[in-house]
Design brief:
By secondary structure, this protein is an alpha+beta fold. It has one domain (7-108): OB fold (Dihydrolipoamide Acetyltransferase, E2P), CATH 2.40.50.100. The chain is 17% helix and 35% strand. A hairpin with a 4-residue loop joins strand 2 (14-18) and strand 3 (23-28).
Length: 127
């Protein structure tokens, strides 16, 4: 596992950032929020819920569409960002800093399967 400030990315446009040795903050990438448009509602997973890597665990709704949130790592949800209930637009304002939920990771090896920011950017469409 890596240092606290390094973000890793999933192919489904979620970012993950270590918050201590066993906790991972999860949000969506700038690309994802741009694709969504103005976010109007965030349905975060329930506290105590457990998800496997890649499982659908929440939803983000925008004026254009709704999009699923997928867990970038396996684990148990130990916190949700309560601010998003009243201020979902925080996702648009600073997607790379606004976390949606925190997971206690159950399979630390999965961290190494996530992409670095450079690898992730290389997967995005250009133009």
């Amino acid at each position: 596992m890596v240092g606290n400030n390094e973000k890793r990315f999933s192919g489904t446009h979620q970012w993950a950032c270590m918050d201590g040795s066993a906790h991972v903050l999860v949000g969506i990438s700038d690309f994802a929020q741009e694709s969504l448009g103005d976010v109007v509602y965030v349905e975060a997973p329930d506290l105590g819920a457990s998800f496997k890597i890649g499982e659908q665990c929440g939803t983000i709704e925008s004026v254009k569409t709704a999009s699923d949130i997928f867990s970038p790592v396996s684990g148990e949800v130990v916190a949700v960002n309560e601010l998003l209930g009243e201020q979902p637009e925080l996702i648009n304002e600073s997607p790379q800093e606004t976390w949606i939920f925190k997971v206690k990771i159950t399979n630390p090896q999965e961290w190494d399967e996530l992409m670095s920011e450079t690898q992730y950017i290389d997967t995005l469409p250009t133009g």
